[in-house]
Design a protein that fits this description.
By secondary structure, the chain is an alpha+beta fold. It has helices spanning about 25-30, 85-110, 115-135, 150-155, 155-165, 170-190, 220-230, 245-255, 265-275, 300-315, 320-340, 350-415, 425-430, 440-469, and strands spanning about 15, 20, 35-40, 55, 60-65, 70, 195, 210-215, 235-240, 260-265, 280, 290-295. It starts with 15 loop residues before the first strand and ends with a helix.
Length: about 475
């Protein structure tokens, strides 16, 4: 395998004019090279020279590369852009659940003394309302109607108190997060909006008519753009390929009203290379052309498969990306050398530029520290939530186990409290004595009847309690 380095100024790309090929495809036409580790767009001219046995849709098309610029934004509804749609739906659902629970608790509050089951459910919903109230930064004040006598009589009120004490970490974390997010909300309301161009049609509107366009000379993206938008050609200016990633082009995009029309692959490469320049890529992508690996058409099928495997390995290991990045830095260094040759004996004071870079780095450090601080507080916040729900679960288990033990103890104590002289015949209605005649015996019978009535009432109360349990 022979590797050939091509000169960018004369051997890049390639088109056919008047029957003669230009650029790097001229070397392929002369059979100097067999393949190029790059994906070229397919057109009628290139089909005569390149193999199209492996066509593929291009994963990138023609896009707009620009820099975010600030403009005044007085829209009062921009606060809704602080959260995504899922977050707003979650907040809405939380408020709806909070309202529904409040509605049911007020219904139970009217009948809170009718039965112990209703009162237990009422207190359970009370704790749920506390949880939802803390989620939204509210406090629940609907439970002051329970007097202290009821609190002393209900031992499971202690579980609700413990639950509220376990929410301290959650409450403190919620307060800190609320303060931090409120600062972000104020900053959002006072900040300017980023001016971006996400569609090609925006270039024809009144707000973006002052923008100028840069295209890469003799590229497929330029041809696609000129065919798609001929009414924007008068605002476009072509630049050589080697100037696509130069500092002057990037500065024109950042400091002046320029945008660059190029392929999506090159746009991603520039955004990665200049990641500190706040560049962006438009959301609208035009990709109506197919692409293929650049392989000479008259090769055998066996050689084509081998070359396809080599090209896939180059893309898999990211070798082409490293080459593209080095090409950009090479163009930057070459441009600087050219400028220094033109500016002999001229001292360049870069103190201001270095100071600007230092301030930018310092602001980045401050933002990263603030982000890490918020992340740590989120950890404490979720730890508080976990402790709260675990405590709540254990308290419920403790309450029901204690209630079950007290019920069993009451059941075992009931037979011991029954009078020893009472029998089943007495409860049914028999048994006083064989003789019924004189006054003393009648008086004894009356006393025994009173005892029987009390015993029957006691047994009925016992059965009622057992049925309730």
């Amino acid at each position: 395998m022979q590797y050939i380095v091509c000169n960018l100024t004369g051997n890049f790309g390639g088109t056919q004019t008047k029957g003669n090929w230009s650029g790097i495809l001229k070397l392929m036409h002369e059979k100097v090279i067999d393949f190029i580790p790059h994906i070229f767009s397919i057109n009628d001219e290139r089909m005569e020279l390149m193999s199209i046995d492996f066509p593929m849709p291009k994963d990138y098309g023609v896009v707009i590369l620009g820099a975010k610029k600030k403009r005044n934004m007085n829209d009062p509804f921009k606060i809704f852009k602080a959260f995504s749609l899922k977050i707003w739906l979650l907040i809405l659902i939380s408020f709806l659940l909070y309202s529904i629970i409040n509605f049911f608790t007020k219904k139970f509050q009217k009948n809170q003394t009718n039965s112990s089951i209703t009162l237990n459910l009422y207190r359970f919903i009370n704790s749920l309302v506390d949880v939802f109230a803390l989620f939204m930064g509210k406090t629940s004040e609907d439970w002051s109607c329970l007097n202290r006598t009821q609190q002393k009589q209900s031992h499971h009120f202690r579980s609700i108190r413990i639950l509220r004490y376990s929410l301290i970490i959650w409450s403190i974390s919620s307060f800190i997060l609320c303060q931090l997010l409120s600062v972000d909300m104020v900053a959002l309301l006072l900040s300017d909006q980023d001016e971006t161009i996400d569609r090609f049609d925006q270039l024809t509107t009144h707000n973006y008519i002052h923008y100028h366009l840069l295209t890469v000379n003799h590229s497929s993206s330029e041809c696609e753009f000129r065919n798609k938008y001929p009414y924007l050609v008068h605002r476009a200016r072509s630049i050589p390929y080697e100037e696509m990633g130069s500092i002057e082009t990037i500065r024109s995009i950042i400091d002046r009203n320029y945008v660059l029309i190029l392929s999506g692959h090159n746009a991603k490469m520039l955004v990665t290379a200049y990641n500190h320049m706040d560049l962006y890529i438009s959301k609208e992508v035009h990709s109506s052309l197919l692409g293929t690996y650049v392989i000479r058409k008259d090769l055998t099928s066996k050689l084509k498969r081998r070359l396809i495997y080599i090209v896939k390995m180059i893309y898999y290991f990211g070798i082409n990306l490293n080459i593209d990045h080095k090409t950009i830095y090479f163009n930057v260094v070459r441009k600087k050398i050219r400028d220094f040759r033109q500016l002999d004996n001229v001292e360049i004071d870069r103190t201001k530029e270095l100071e600007k870079i230092r301030k930018t780095r310092q602001s980045i450090r401050v933002q990263s520290r603030l982000g890490s601080l918020i992340q740590k507080i989120f950890y404490f916040y979720f730890i508080g939530i976990s402790i709260t729900f675990l405590t709540f679960t254990f308290e419920l288990i403790h309450f029901y186990s204690k209630r079950l033990l007290s019920t069993e103890k009451r059941i075992h104590q009931l037979p011991r409290q029954m009078p020893s002289s009472t029998t089943e015949d007495d409860l049914v209605g028999g048994g006083g004595g064989d003789d019924v005649g004189d006054g003393d015996e009648d008086h004894d019978d009356i006393d025994s009847d009173d005892d029987e009535i009390k015993t029957i009432d006691f047994v009925r109360t016992k059965n009622r309690n057992l049925e309730r349990i």
